[in-house]
C-alpha cells in the first residue's frame, strides 16, 4: 500500500497514514499477495474486575475518551462494556454484572487481562477460509450483525490460551463501535489546558506463551495470518544472571500489527515469563506498547496521574558503551534519566521507551510507551536493563 491510497487513513480518525508510518514504523508491501490482509488493530478488549472504575482510570490517567457503551441500560444484561479511544487506539473494557456472567469466571482465572485482540480486515470470509485451511480453530463463523448504524461482518479464531482474534469488516458500518453499542461520552471532564491525547496508537502487543511453544505460535501466525518474521532475539541477548526469555516478532505485511511472542528460557531463578504464566494461569498478553510523539510529556502526564513506571538501573545512563551507541537523540540525556526513559538505536534510527508497573493487582499485563525515530526495533539493547528492573520488582513480590 502506498501513502496515496486511503483505506487505512480513512479509519485512523485524525492520525494520518504518514503519522502512523512514523509512529509505528510502517513499511510498504504488496497487499494483493497477502492471504490474510489485515487493515489494522481494531480493538483490544479487556476483562477486568470493575469496568466502571477501570474506564475512569483510562480517562483520567491515560487521557482516553469514552465513545460508546453497552450494558444493562441498553439491553446487555450480564456485563458492562466501555469503549475508549486515543488517536487510532481503541480499548474495550468489560466487566461482569450478573453472578452467572462468563466474564466473572474468566476474571477469576486470569485477573484483569486482554481477551480479544481484534483485527480489522477487508474480507472476513477470505481470512477465515485461509485460517481454517491452515489448521486454525474457528470459534465464530463469519456472519452479519446489524443495527441502526449499519452492518458489520465478523468472525473469531482462537489464539494462545483463552485469547482470541475477532475479525471485523466495518466497511458498511457507521456506528461508534459495533452493533449493540450506543454512542456515549464519559462523565470525566479533562482539566483546562490538558492535551487532546497523550498517545496516538498501539504500536505492538506482546504475548507470553509456555516453554517450548514460541516457535509453534510464530509458525501459526506465519501460516494462519501470513505474518512475516521481524527481529529475533534469542539467548544471551535477553538474559540476566537470574532469568531469561526468548522472543520472536511477527507482523502483518505493512507492520501495522506487530506481535512479539515470548517464552521462558532456562535460568537460575524463576523468569518474569514464568511468573506471568503462573499468575495469569496460562499464556496471554504480557504488554501493550503505546506509541507517542512526545514521550517526556506523556510520562509526565501519567506520573502526575499516579501511574508508576519501572526505574532504569542508575548505571544505565553512565554506561560508556551505551552512551556511544545512543549518539544524538532529540532531548538531553539528563531529561531521559530524570524520567527513567530508555534509548535504543539500530541501523534504521533510534527509539525512546519506558515500561510501566502492572496496572492491575496481579503481576501480569503492563504497558510500554514508545517514541520511534526511524527504528523498527523493540528496544533489544534495553532488555537487560529492563529485566534487571523487573527482577527487582519480582524480588519485592517474593516471586524470584
Ligand atoms: Fe515492547
Automatic annotation (TrEMBL):
What are its GO cellular component terms? cytoplasm
What CDD domains does this protein map onto? HPPD_C_like (cd07250), HPPD_N_like (cd08342)
Statement: the UniProt record of this protein carries the keyword Endoplasmic reticulum: yes
**Chief location of this protein within or outside the cell:** cytoplasm
**Entry's EC annotation:** 1.13.11.27
Keywords associated with the record: Cytoplasm, Dioxygenase, Endoplasmic reticulum, Golgi apparatus, Iron, Membrane, Metal-binding, Oxidoreductase, Pyruvate, Repeat
Q: What lineage is on file?
A: Bacteria, Bacillati, Actinomycetota, Actinomycetes, Pseudonocardiales
Its quaternary organisation is: Homodimer.
Entry similarity comment: Belongs to the 4HPPD family.
Name its species: Solihabitans fulvus
The protein's required cofactors: Fe cation
Query: Does the keyword field hold 4Fe-4S?
Result: no
Residue ranges of the VOC domain?
A: 40-170, 201-357
Identify a single GO molecular function assigned to this protein.
4-hydroxyphenylpyruvate dioxygenase activity
Q: Which GO terms describe its biological process?
A: L-tyrosine catabolic process
| Enzyme kind, highest EC tier | oxidoreductase
Cofactor comment in the record?
Answer: Binds 1 Fe cation per subunit.
Q: Which Pfam families match?
A: Glyoxalase (PF00903)
By its UniProt entry, which InterPro entries does this protein fall under? Answer: 4OHPhenylPyrv_dOase (IPR005956), 4OHPhenylPyrv_dOase_C (IPR041735), 4OHPhenylPyrv_dOase_N (IPR041736), Glyas_Bleomycin-R_OHBP_Dase (IPR029068), Glyas_Fos-R_dOase_dom (IPR004360), VOC_core (IPR037523)
Give the protein name, as stated in the record: 4-hydroxyphenylpyruvate dioxygenase
List the gene name.
hppD
User: How does it sit in the bilayer?
Assistant: Peripheral membrane protein
Amino acid at each position: 500500500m502506498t501513502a496515496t491510497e486511503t483505506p487505512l487513513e480513512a479509519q485512523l480518525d485524525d492520525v494520518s497514514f504518514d503519522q502512523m508510518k512514523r509512529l509505528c514504523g510502517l513499511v510498504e508491501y504488496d497487499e494483493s499477495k497477502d492471504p490474510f490482509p489485515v487493515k489494522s488493530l481494531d480493538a483490544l478488549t479487556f476483562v477486568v474486575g470493575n469496568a466502571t472504575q477501570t474506564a475512569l482510570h483510562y480517562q483520567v490517567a491515560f487521557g482516553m475518551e469514552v465513545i460508546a457503551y453497552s450494558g444493562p441500560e441498553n439491553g446487555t444484561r450480564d456485563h458492562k462494556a466501555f469503549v475508549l479511544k486515543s488517536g487510532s487506539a481503541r480499548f474495550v473494557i468489560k466487566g461482569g454484572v450478573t453472578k452467572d456472567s462468563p466474564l466473572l469466571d474468566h476474571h477469576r482465572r486470569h485477573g484483569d487481562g486482554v481477551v480479544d485482540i481484534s483485527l480489522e480486515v477487508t474480507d472476513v470470509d477470505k481470512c477465515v477460509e485461509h485460517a481454517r485451511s491452515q489448521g486454525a480453530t474457528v470459534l465464530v463463523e463469519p456472519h452479519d450483525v446489524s443495527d441502526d448504524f449499519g452492518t458489520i461482518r465478523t468472525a473469531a479464531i482462537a489464539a494462545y490460551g483463552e485469547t482470541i482474534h475477532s475479525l471485523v469488516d466495518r466497511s458498511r458500518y457507521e456506528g461508534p463501535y459495533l452493533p449493540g453499542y450506543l454512542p456515549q461520552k464519559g462523565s470525566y471532564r479533562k482539566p483546562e489546558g490538558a492535551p487532546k491525547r497523550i498517545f496516538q496508537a498501539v504500536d505492538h502487543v506482546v504475548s507470553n506463551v509456555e516453554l517450548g511453544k514460541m516457535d509453534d505460535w510464530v509458525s501459526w501466525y506465519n501460516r494462519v495470518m501470513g505474518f512475516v518474521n521481524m527481529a529475533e532475539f534469542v539467548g544471551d541477548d535477553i538474559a540476566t544472571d537470574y532469568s531469561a526469555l526468548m522472543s520472536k516478532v511477527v507482523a502483518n505485511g505493512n507492520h501495522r500489527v506487530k506481535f512479539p511472542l515470548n517464552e521462558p528460557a532456562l535460568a537460575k531463578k524463576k523468569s518474569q515469563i514464568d511468573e506471568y504464566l503462573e499468575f495469569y494461569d496460562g499464556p496471554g498478553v504480557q504488554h501493550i506498547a503505546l506509541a507517542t510523539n512526545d514521550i517526556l510529556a506523556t510520562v509526565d502526564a501519567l506520573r502526575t496521574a499516579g501511574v508508576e513506571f519501572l526505574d532504569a538501573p542508575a548505571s544505565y545512563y553512565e554506561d560508556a558503551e551505551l552512551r556511544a551507541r545512543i549518539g544524538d537523540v532529540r532531548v538531553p540525556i539528563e531529561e531521559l534519566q530524570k524520567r527513567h526513559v530508555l534509548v535504543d538505536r539500530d541501523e534504521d534510527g533510534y527509539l525512546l521507551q519506558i515500561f510501566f508497573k502492572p496496572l492491575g493487582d496481579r503481576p501480569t499485563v503492563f504497558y510500554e510507551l514508545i517514541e520511534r525515530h526511524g527504528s523498527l526495533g523493540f528496544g533489544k539493547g534495553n532488555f537487560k536493563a529492563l529485566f534487571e528492573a523487573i527482577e527487582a520488582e519480582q524480588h519485592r513480590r517474593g516471586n524470584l
